Amino acid sequence: MTGTRFDPSWFEAHHVNLSATERRAATLTTRRTVKKDWQAAWLAQAITCIDLTTLAGDDTPSRVQRLCAKARQPLRDDIMAALGLDALRVGAVCVYPTMVAHAVKALEGSGVPVASVATGFPAGLMPLSLRLAEINYAVDQGASEVDIVITREYALTGQWSKLYDEIAAMREACGPAHMKAILATGDLQTLGNVYKASMVAMQAGSDFIKTSTGKEGLNATLPVSLTMVRALRDFREKSGQIVGFKPAGGIKSAKDAIAWLILMKEELGTRWTRNDLFRFGASSMLGDIERQLEHHVTGRYSAANRHAMA
Ligand SMILES: O=C[C@H](O)COP(=O)(O)O
């Protein structure tokens, strides 16, 4: 994404109405239901949008290899056959930088890209030069997508041009890799700040804007997501550029998957339900989707532990 020059007039006076946003978010899932067969199709679609993630201090190459095996084949053969599907894969596998090479090797030939968090994930509190070096390392290791974190202080104190410069430098360091800007919305205090940070991240050239690291006290929510997708819409109107969206953190169930797909379809249209413009950052949601699809095809539920991720 090329982005635009820094232009605070696109967001400075913008006001987000908290109660209207919450009301709209609440009605998204109550006004519209997805019927049975369509539900299975939507869940299969959701799988293709998952950035299957492991971001734990005790990650090991073998855990990453197991996750990659799941990414190659997210559903059991019998469920695939019953759904009439012959190929399905997740959007990407997302890991820490030192795990990238292991993931790249395990995914060879599958077409599944490797995403890496970088820039001092999750807090980002280290010098910019080191954060940029970390991007270079992740890309050298084979990451074709990089999930960066922003300096929350800049958003909390209204230093929007500093935020723009930081993100633009990260965008440049990513080179050909796609960049997702994690706003850590749970740290940003107001939906107004979420909207402004979204706009700045897009002006600075982000390919995706992403809600959360999964490590904040409050992760992806529908009101925050609604605020961000409206910023996406406004940015498209103003710049003609199309940016993707990635809710992440705490999204765990098949029901969540449907709720976010409805949000994208209703606010932005079907185009934004495909994995070049929409991803879920999730470590465990695939297990619940597989369980629901198994129920759809067999009429029985299996234990959740039969759908381990890694
Ligand atoms: O970006 C992805 C998140 O770290 C995953 O969060 P989760 O473990 O709550 O699914």
UniProtKB/TrEMBL annotation:
SMART domains (UniProt xref): DeoC
Enzyme Commission designation: 4.1.2.4
Cited Gene3D superfamilies: Aldolase class I
Pfam family, one: DeoC
UniProt key word 4Fe-4S: no
InterPro entries to which the protein is assigned, alphabetical: Aldolase_TIM, DeoC, DeoC/FbaB/LacD_aldolase
SUPFAM superfamilies, A to Z: Aldolase (SSF51569)
DNA repair in keyword set: no
GO molecular function ontology, one term from the record: deoxyribose-phosphate aldolase activity
Enzyme class, first EC level, given as a word: lyase
Catalyses which reaction(s): 2-deoxy-D-ribose 5-phosphate = D-glyceraldehyde 3-phosphate + acetaldehyde
GO terms under biological process: carbohydrate catabolic process; deoxyribonucleotide catabolic process
Signal peptide segment: none
Family designation: Belongs to the DeoC/FbaB aldolase family. DeoC type 2 subfamily.
NCBIfam families in alphabetical order: deoC
Record's protein name: Deoxyribose-phosphate aldolase
Source organism of the structure: Roseinatronobacter bogoriensis subsp. barguzinensis
